[in-house]
Specification:
- The structure is a homodimer of 425-residue chains.
- Chain A has 425 residues and is α/β, with parallel strands linked by helices.
- Chain A has two domains: 110 residues, Urease, subunit C, domain 1 (Roll), CATH 2.30.40; 303 residues, Alpha-Beta Barrel (TIM Barrel), CATH 3.20.20.140.
- Chain A is built from 13 helices and 17 strands.
- In chain A, strands 3-2-1-4-15-16-17 form a seven-stranded mixed beta sheet, with helices on one face. In chain A, strands 5-6-7-9 form a four-stranded parallel beta sheet. In chain A, strands 11-12-13-14 form a four-stranded parallel beta sheet.
- In chain A, helix 3 links the parallel strand 6 and strand 7.
- In chain A, helix 4 runs parallel beside helix 5.
- Chain A starts with 6 loop residues before the first strand and ends with a strand.
- The interface between A and B is large, with 41 and 41 residues.
- Chains A, B: Its EC number is 3.5.4.3.
- Chains A, B: Pathway: Purine metabolism; guanine degradation; xanthine from guanine: step 1/1.
- Chains A, B: Catalyzes the hydrolytic deamination of guanine, producing xanthine and ammonia.
- Chains A, B: Belongs to the metallo-dependent hydrolases superfamily. ATZ/TRZ family.
- Chains A, B: It catalyses: guanine + H2O + H(+) = xanthine + NH4(+).
Chain lengths: 425, 425
């Protein structure tokens, strides 16, 4: 960052979480942004900035932009329906037939446009997204995200077994297409990057996973997939890979488990051994509470994983999850953690409001670098929040305003967005 | 119902649940209303109605009005905050101090106006509501509900032990005031009726409960209270009433358990003996899923209770629950039932969409008489639903539209409301 970079100053009620332990709040405070990055947050503006114009948001809240670590853009048209089944039959009945439609680029453009608009409206400034096996449709999605200026990783999905013929790739074709897609994307976008995306172990042969691991390494690309979401899925993986110690071990064997930056979605039913490898390999967990309840997958032990210092962010997981609204995903995260603590009577405490806020911002943001917090040197991603409609009687404290926002917040509360120092229009 | 009553005919996609087993759907059907009540639902309009003008709602959905069996109007200002505590400390920290403010009639009017407006906007046509100990403020609430035309039972709360001095009534004063309030209400309202409302066992002495039982009997008034919400509460009740077999038995002893029509809210941790008495005494359960998760109370075995043919409806339970939106309460009901089935691995299956729809309409409606369904002779309470905003791509089947509505529906989807045959304005 050059010293000469343009300086922006915003004033408002500034809320972020440097750690998951508590809120950092500056009431009627100032946030100084130099170029893309934060210079500092101040309760009283330092003398040296006194001649710079201030964008005064009054009593509004200024919070970091949301980071959505796991979602499936091609499932956008089937959100909020078909939750009568668990993972595997749900994929077969609803999801695979829908994803097969994305061979049609016109259909892809229609759905992806709706998806990207909604993602943008919901205040998600950073996202990690599954496409389908169709590389051309996936590029349409990437083009649309670039146009909106949403910082994102997008994956062309790979699958060469245990799926309908409409989605089953020839292994070598899949590899070739992936390389071509990766090279095609290189340097094409400012905000959007490719991510290697084996769907999940049951739908990828060892050969395919091995080659994808090589591609990730060669092009230094991150990896995303699903891990230990549903008990039947886990059993199936055991049958498919009896040589591996556990589900995570299959990815690890093929260098898809932290060898480059990796996100694993769900992680509901991890063994202690799996947790140890996740931590050692610095694999990032995308916690998807809405999906985990809708598909009856279970309740992930997030409080326990946070204590072990595993890196965790939140995922909306459309369409297992019904909504891209990250306020709602946070509320669901708290609720699920309460039920875990009630049902299993373990020593895990329910998650606190700062903890879920941290997960939705800095927790996931770490995958993107210095993102998701208002600390010095962090990229300035922010949402300006008008919550007047939630306080018809008399406004509470900043902490209470954030709590109520988590339960009721929606796109209409977001009145301005910043990504990496610039207003998102 | 006189044969000469005015006839109204509505056309649209008519959805209701005569039983919890499945939807009764009439696509582009007709609903014939004679006076207050339903004459019939028809796929093809009978010849005899051919000269009557039809209110044509086109592709919109027509569903029964919502019934909210349990909610606390004076807690409206603290919804969506303070969910870091379980029931008893939550009451002491947040709820009792807030309720104490309702000695001030101006404050009561302010909050109750917001509450009633919101209840109305959310499409709740029938509700059973707690006030506070303050009989004058409670009458303000009743006046406001009457003005809006919401059919409701409202309770002046009684409590004479284990609460702050600001809310503790002298037992005889409490009884005297209750009688005066009941007599004052008699014949005053068209839509609103009094209901006897001991807060819950811990805050009512045996003497007070006994006298309230007598009042309920003498004036033939229904009763509402709380039952077996939280494990600590249940332990406390055991200590307070060691002579009683269980929590429910305390109410039963004082004729507050089905001797007149009775609603018991929560019922999360019932014994088999309690369930048997509930069924025998025809006590109605108000299931409050949002509150049960927010206050970490637990997951009520609704699927099991439905199978035993216990009468159940839904309660928003403001402010243990965060919202009066009954779509959201239905979604929460499904989600909680999935987690119960996942966590406890019992034979209980998750609730289906028709089951929760039934609970939110006919299940609770039975408390009001023939209410909550579009069967012949039922009072015509209905909501006309425009769900176009939920289907940006292409509309699904009627069942899918109802499912998505449960996950995303809100006041803006409700474009018209009927109560007992008349439009609610």
């Amino acid at each position: 960052m050059k010293k000469s970079s343009h300086i922006n100053i915003l004033k408002g009620n500034i809320v972020h979480t440097e750690t998951s332990k508590l809120f950092n709040i500056s009431k009627n405070g100032y946030i100084v942004v130099q170029g893309n990055c934060i210079e500092g947050v101040y309760d009283k503006l330092p003398e040296r900035y006194k001649n710079i114009e201030i964008e005064d948001y009054g009593d509004k809240l200024i919070i970091p932009g949301f980071v959505d670590l796991h979602t499936h853009a091609p499932q956008f048209a089937i959100k909020g329906i078909g939750y009568d089944k668990e993972l595997i039959p749900w994929l077969e009945t609803y999801t695979f037939p829908e994803e097969a439609k994305f061979i049609d680029k016109a259909y892809a453009e229609k759905i992806y446009k709706e998806f990207v608009n909604e993602l943008y409206n919901q205040g998600t400034t950073r996202a990690v997204i599954f496409g389908t096996i169709h590389e051309e449709s996936t590029e349409i999605l990437m083009d649309l995200l670039e146009e909106k200026g949403i910082s994102s990783y997008v994956g062309k999905v790979n699958m060469d077994r245990n799926c309908p013929d409409t989605l089953k790739e020839d292994s070598n074709e899949s590899i070739k297409k992936t390389i071509k897609w990766v090279e095609n994307c290189s340097g094409k976008y400012k905000f959007v990057k490719p991510i290697i995306t084996p769907r999940f172990v049951p739908s990828c042969t060892g050969y395919l996973m091995e080659e994808l691991g090589k591609i990730a390494e060669k092009y230094n690309l991150p990896v995303q997939s699903h891990l230990s979401e549903n008990p039947s899925e886990i059993e199936w993986v055991k049958e498919l890979h009896p040589d591996c110690k556990n589900y995570g071990d299959v990815y690890d064997k093929y260098n898809l488990f932290g060898q480059t930056k990796t996100i694993m979605a769900h992680c509901v039913h991890l063994t202690d051994e799996e947790i140890a490898t996740i931590k050692k390999n610095e694999v990032v967990i995308a916690h998807c509470p809405t999906s985990n309840v809708n598909l009856s997958s279970g309740i992930s032990p997030i409080s326990k994983l946070l204590k072990k210092d595993v890196q965790i962010g939140l995922g909306s997981d459309i369409s297992g999850g019904e909504t891209l609204n990250m306020f709602a995903v946070m509320a669901s995260t708290i609720k699920m953690s309460k039920l875990r603590s009630v049902c299993f009577k373990e020593e895990e405490k329910p998650l606190t409001i700062p903890e879920v806020f941290y997960l939705a911002t800095k927790g996931g943001g770490r995958f993107f670098g210095k993102v998701g917090s208002f600390e010095e040197g962090y990229e300035f991603d922010a949402l300006v929040i008008d919550d007047d409609n939630l306080w018809k009687v008399s406004k509470g404290s900043i902490e209470e305003r954030v709590e109520r926002l988590i339960y009721f917040g929606c796109e209409k509360n977001i009145i301005n967005k910043y990504l990496s120092g610039k207003v998102l229009n």
